[in-house]
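re: ur question from yesterday

yeah so i grabbed the chain u mentioned. its 294 aa long if i counted rite. heres the sequnce exactly as i have it in my notes:
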Amino acid sequence: MNNNYIEFKKKRELGDIISDTFAFVRQSLKPILSLTIKTAVIPIVLLMIALAFMTYVSMDITSKIGVGSSIDNLGIDFGIIFIAFALLVLGLFLFAGILSGTILHYIKSYIDNQGTVDEDTVKSLVKRDLGKIIGLSIVSGMISLFGFMLCVIPGIYLYVPMSLVFAIFVFRSTSISDTISDSFELIRGEWWITFATIFVMGLISSMIGYVFAIPAFIYGMVSGLISANEVSMGNAAEITDWTAITLSVISDLIRYFILYLLSGISSAFIYFNLNERKHHTGALEQIESLGKSE
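ran it thru and got these structure tokens back, copy pasting raw so excuse formatting
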């Protein structure tokens, strides 16, 4: 067993989940990052393209508004806006699914081998489950979006069980439909503590992620002031700045990686915490292992 092994299969309070999540990040960030590059290179490229397109469209709209045009004659193509938004959502679903699958298969190997990870096995399992992971990402994402379309409260309620679907899928090896139903069963009676944990982790992830957005923000402020002085009122197209787009894409990609990294790892701790409270599987395994060692 690895001397720094972190036990997943036990009950934890909110503070323990947060501290153990960061302890696991410190221990496993480099191998997880390496595996992510190997398993998610295509989703990363697609997400970068979607981010660049969305940023370009947003900057184009902003530049048109900035030259003093009225809303009626801005000439905004809402079809392009919809396409950019749809591509971004699809890119995020794909990126989130494969990254979460990679992280959770890494954790599963970590648990099965008592702290040692077989990277080849992780890659093969992610490849094997790729179709289901993408499908689960889209289905769970659409369920959450449907909830938010109805109202904020249903959206928040549905987001909590949907945040655990990848952990359930990987650790229980269930089908997509069973995974969705199991997620609701798992949080039954534990919704509030699960929501609080997800909320706090999301807040921490956002705070860390936005640190990496500072360079893009500063550059945008400076270039905006310069553009205001140099760009003619009738030549708004000159405002498009590919350096700003590049910085924005890089900072957004880092933010999303941090968000899904921390949420993926914390979802494993949340899953095992809830599973232990309901089924005591971790305690039973420890008792059995003690019996065998004797």
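noticed a couple things. The chain has twelve helices and no strands. also Residues 231-239, 290-294 have pLDDT under 50 and may be disordered.
anyway ttyl
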